[in-house]
Specification:
The chain is an alpha/beta fold and 342 residues long. The chain folds into two domains: 7-131 and 308-325, ATPase, nucleotide binding domain (Nucleotidyltransferase, domain 5, 2-Layer Sandwich); 138-307, 2-Layer Sandwich (Nucleotidyltransferase, domain 5). It has nine helices and ten strands. 5'-O-[(R)-(carboxyoxy)(hydroxy)phosphoryl]adenosine binds next to helix 4 and helix 5.
Amino acid sequence: MELRKGIILGIESSCDDTSASVIKDGRILSNLIARQDIHEQYGGVVPELASRAHQQNIIPVVEKALKEAGVTKEELTGIAFTAGPGLMGALLVGVSFAKSFALSLDIPLVQVNHMKGHILAHFIQKPNEEKKMPTFPFICLTVSGGHTQLVKVTDYLEMEIMGETLDDAAGEAFDKMAKVLGFPYPGGPLIDKYAKEGDSTRFPFTHPRTQNYDYSFSGLKTQFINFIRMCERDDPNFVEKNKADICASIQDTIIRTLFSKLKKLADDLNINQVAIAGGVSANSHLRNELTKLGKKKRWDTFIPEFQYCTDNAGMIAMTGYFKYLKQDFVGQEVTANARMKF
Ligand code: KG4
Ligand code: ZN
């Protein structure tokens, strides 16, 4: 990609991470993330608490991101923010901040769709880094706490959803099953951790069946909950005794399900560039299995760096930068859109 000029501040506040990042001429200079641990004890994100924490975190996070980048606010040429999808109260904090900051600096505002941001995280590079990036067209399996999408990407800003979940997202499935096992929120990373020691063939679960390239995880969740309850009736310590095997088995089922549609789409479209993105792409089994599958299918596979898998402003600044180059700006009348279309 030809590098062009622009210093973009990216702001992300769609869920429970407050994040700010600076991208200069297409290269990332900083990516600061303030995580909100408060939700752990409630078993999920409490929207009201998330909004309050964003309000407290946003200015310190932006200040740190500018400082680490060695950029003054007067040097910024654009501000990109997540407009949606996400939690309304959480989004509004980032949107309001971005609008007032852009107004005071008299620089353009760029709105970013969070899900497109996850995909374009693949184009984030540090100064002087020459990373291998997907070429167009490529397929991206975006798996997060709120979404599961199979996307055909034909250019930086041209992409189409080919399939998605009809009910729960893959991350949501991980988190809800983890909750049944007694893990704190978000449980996905803990399932990943315990699964490392487990046997994935020990407890077979039925793979969800869906049409086309769509997914469904709610049936699997119910099957899992019923199975755990039944086993606990016979042995109250069942989960504790079999934690690793339970985690490995359910994780493998989710990942095989994700891959079945991914393979079908790549075959049908005859595309051999395949990427993963979103919080669940931090899962070690998913990463390893994609690499293995890629070798077998002769795909070029792309796996984001850990810091760009879960929510981060680097991906928002990157997407904002592409839109900034096209002068795709929005005015001060813009607002958050919790159900923003792709
Ligand atoms: O993209 P993300 O940070 O936020 C949303 O946009 O939703 O994704 C968060 C999701 C959570 O469901 C979390 O449990 C899951 O990503 N996650 C993982 C792992 N790390 C994060 N799931 C499985 N294994 C992991 N290692
Ligand atoms: Zn996300």
